[in-house]
Amino acid sequence: MKKVVSLLLAASVLFLLSSCGDSNQKPELQPLRVGLVKGSAQVERDVFDNMTSRLELAGCELTYVEYDTDEATLDALVKKEVDLTCCTTFADFKAYDEAHPETLTNLGAAYYYPYGVFLCGFEKAEQITDGATIAVPSEAGGQARALMLLDAAGYITLKQGKAFDATLDDIETNVRDFAISAYPESELPNRYKNYSSDLVVMNSQTAVNAGYSVNKYSIAIESIDSLAAKEYAVVLLINSAEASSEQITSVKELFFSPLMYDLIDDTPKDLIVPAFEISPMKLAATTPEEADK
Fold first, then answer.
1. 112-128 per-position pLDDT tens digit
2. 169 assigned to some structural domain
3. Quick one: 266 and 134 in the same domain?
4. CA within 20 to 30 Å of 57's CA: 100, 124, 174, 265, which one?
5. Distances (CA, A) of 137 to 22, 52, 117, 168
């Protein structure tokens, strides 16, 4: 009888030890494959890298897969070679969706590269004189966004209905007789640096590459509710068949959170701006745990 009791006790101890051992083992992480475009993926990497530890807590291990083009990355998402991507803007996604309807789902706008009005001929906006010179991009898309921003800032008025197709010929009113000229976007930083124009309107990518911060040096920036911010926001895309999966649900909750908003908003020299909004109460939270409540 004592032998039987001893064997039972030994078996119980072994069972408890094995149970304790299991509890200390890390759960197996499921890969979360993010599609990136070669040569232009550093911003996307930086954004997703900020989520690494929190994704691990949600059972996901972040990995990156690179492709040659935006379209190749989107095709890979359709084929389920990757789980999500932030490789393209809402405008380009709409075009892809028309050609491949309902294959991909847009989880939401993530961030955008804003245009800003940089003041270089005056110290303050109030000092801008009538007839001041303004440099805008000569490239069609950039020129339209620059003119839309000047319109929103009150410097000019565009013709009714003109937006993404706007050109210098579409300026309806310019009551202060600003001399607005177009130059290749690549030349705009030098025009700003050398005071060749009184105001320069350029994209954050152009400005940051030249060493200038959008928030620090510009007097007007594309707002989150502007047409340009909505149309050219980089969007978080998934395969439509995975829209209700637990993994994607976790990713969406983590990405569109106050913590990620702050991390994107704190990007060096304001290269990108959050394209989603968070309530002031949640933004005021001081810890990730409080922010998620």
1. 999 999 999 888 999 99
2. yes
3. no
4. 265
5. 61, 37, 12, 10
